[in-house]
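Running log. JK asked me to keep both predictions on one page so they can be read side by side. First protein, sequence followed by its tokens:
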Amino acid sequence: MGCKSSKTLIKDKPNSNISILKPKDSTNITKINSLTKEPINNDPSHSNTVKHLVDFAKQFEGVKYKFGGTTNKGMDCSGLVYETFKAFEIELPRISRHMATQGAKVSIDSVKTGDLLFFKTSNKLKTINHVGLVVTALPGNIEFIHSTTSLGVIISSLAERYWYYSFVEARRIL
């Protein structure tokens, strides 16, 4: 059910630093501490930026799944996340398992809207192979947008059995 982009043989630097530039709709810059990879957020419009980021991702809801895809004609899970952050001039690796090395790891109890959720959806693979962007983070209700091979870009709940048991970790980029 997850996406297959983790098998892509694109030469990415999995441990490269995140390059974060000025979001297109803001004069503020979100910075990442290069040593700890933790967000440094002194931006009062941060929640507004996160809202725009989530709204951008939601415009792809209903787009069919396409391995390696990054457009409204078809996209995979990491393509959705990659293109969403790219629209705000935030560069992430293209592959989900490489994305999972970026930002700061956060506990599931601390997840916020805009965080990334990482999954291992295959017993054959011993690595992260799926990613979603949190669109709602309430106690007991974490929803995320992602692209699945069967349904394309959809919003799911972490409370769903499949996703709950496939969940590996959450990371904060912003």
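And the second, directly underneath as requested:
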Amino acid sequence: MKLKYNSEIMSGSVFLVAAVVLWLLIPSQIDTMETSAINAQTVPKIVIGGMGIFSFCLLLQGIFTAPKKEVVITRTTLSSEHFQKELKSIIYAAIFLAYLVALTWVGFLISTMLLTIAILVFYGARRWYYYAIPLAMVGVVYFIFKMLLRVSLP
């Protein structure tokens, strides 16, 4: 199977759409009663605006300058070292997406402990103290923010 793609066009268009969606979500997610020019929405708008501008530039670069790459997918491609690296990156991203879902359902403490364990298992940590130290740190962070500073955590 042959695929022709341009990574600049793909990346630029995905992040441009993400920037537009985030830009439109700012007023509903960040409420502000201030009438001044600089308020709580200013920094997120600057960051997301910059993301949109650079995504658009990347999209233009892909359209006008970068040639399309041709990828041939075969069984040997799926077992290659490069594909295995990409697959590890996808699995790592999936772990973080699962963490975001778990964060809303079970809260900070349990989901962060599960994230810590999942990452350590993913990297093949075998010693017990590799697990004990990060889990203890999660507990310490939770205690400091929740109990001492009284910051509400999800």
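Observation for JK regarding the second prediction: Strands lie at 2-5, 69-72.
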